[in-house]
Amino acid sequence: MLRTLHKLGLDSTTPLTVGGVRVSPRDVVAACLPDPATIGGRMRGKTCAATWVRGTGVDGAAREVYLYHVVDNEWSMAEYGHQAVVWQTAINPVIALELLASGEWSGAGVLGPEALPPRPFLNKLTEYGSPWGVRE
Q1: What whole-number distance in Å separates Cα of residue 10 and Cα of residue 21?
Q2: β partners of residue 39
Q3: Could you tell me the sign of the dihedral formed by the alpha carbons of 108, 52, 3, 86, in that order?
Q4: Which residues contact 53 (CB under 8 A, 6 or more apart)?
Q5: Which of 11, 75, 84, 85 has its CB 3.0 to 4.6 Å from that of 71, i.e. a possible disulfide?
């Protein structure tokens, strides 16, 4: 859909005169779209949040890992009243706070998630009903 809007020039921010009013095509398209907060109940399907990490393993050899988790929109709407992408964004800090509060994660200073053991986080993700996987 985005490619089609681009081909039609409807992603342009350059204003045009329409009926004596200056307006950009992108603003017209945005004004016609439904409010994202209102469409969750009408959405079907699953969303996959993932990261593909490429680097060097502890053995010095090249390594690639694809870590992902999948959430069904109908499930997240029924369980939490929010779209799958909202749930996927919100669950990460919730789990991190739970792990910090329980003492499973600890440390001093500013730590990125990669500085902490991943298994407790992934276990919590499973407890919350989000399938995840690793492909090497």
Answers
A1: 17
A2: none
A3: negative
A4: 64, 65, 66, 67
A5: 84
